[in-house]
Amino acid sequence: MPLAPLAAREVAAAVGAALDNVRKHAGEQASAWILVEDEPDEVIVTVRDDGPGIPEGRLAQAEGEGRLGVALSIRGRLRDLGGSAELISVPGQGTEVELKVPKDLTQARGKAEQR
Amino acid sequence: MTEATEGRQDPIKVMVVDDHPMWRDAVARDLAESGFEVVATAGDGDQAVRRAKAAAPDVLVLDLNLPAKPGVQVCKEVVAANPALRVLVLSASGEHADVLEAVKSGATGYLLKSASTEELRDAVRRTAVGDPVFTPGLAGLVLGEYRRLASEPAPAPDTDEPKAPRLTDRETEVLRLVAKGLSYKQIAERLVISHRTVQNHVQNTLGKLQLHNRVELVRYAIERGLDDE
């Protein structure tokens, strides 16, 4: 089952933001992969690069300085859809942004309101 | 002795099938210069099947978009005639359904035509020794196929319809990492398992699909009474 148009647009924007991040931070030589998985009740989109990765503590530091613009905009978009965005970075193995979007948007909105 | 033939008595015998002569000749020349023995080339599907039987290559480098007979059909026929023959699909992007069909009928590797000469050499070498050549794109296709099979209604218990193959959690985990572009080495590090174990998991995901495909074909043949012929 495909995503609702609104959700699809938001996911596309989040993927675009993740790719912008790769372009800015992963270095000239880096490659990026996008994996789209159509699960029974959610769609998972992963954007991965093989750049140097984010050193441990760096994310928390950036967050403390209020410099997490892109990560926040990706997370915000997904949260509004009742989904989630996870950032995984292993030194030497690049950075992965995993976006999860529930297919049933009405349920997602209900959940968001309950929070 | 060149790298391609290391550890082997004879050079790996390769056949190149593609309908574009310039491309075909360039691939054949690259492989020959790397120490492989190019035993034949073919420009259409019929020619490919005939020459593969006569020239008996170890590895068939196969384009899928061929005149006279589609590449998928060529793959089915040459593997049926000689199960020891390894097929490496070298295709343009966007032929997803065909690539999956070729892999289910016995191809053990898939490389995009945008690959480098070095990647092709490495892929032919690995195909020859029986290692599946899984690009991230192919891993994604295979994952999708298992999901499709899982979403089909289960066969009724009183029929002899084979159950759809399933991936173990570990196999799914490994395949997802391949699809995200990680190398076997990186996957082994991340999951704290050996390189060989990663390879085995990947190989199993392909093996189960191919076995399922063969069982389905046999069942289909019996149903239609084709087994008497």
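Strands of chain A lie at 32-38, 42-49, 84-89, 95-102.
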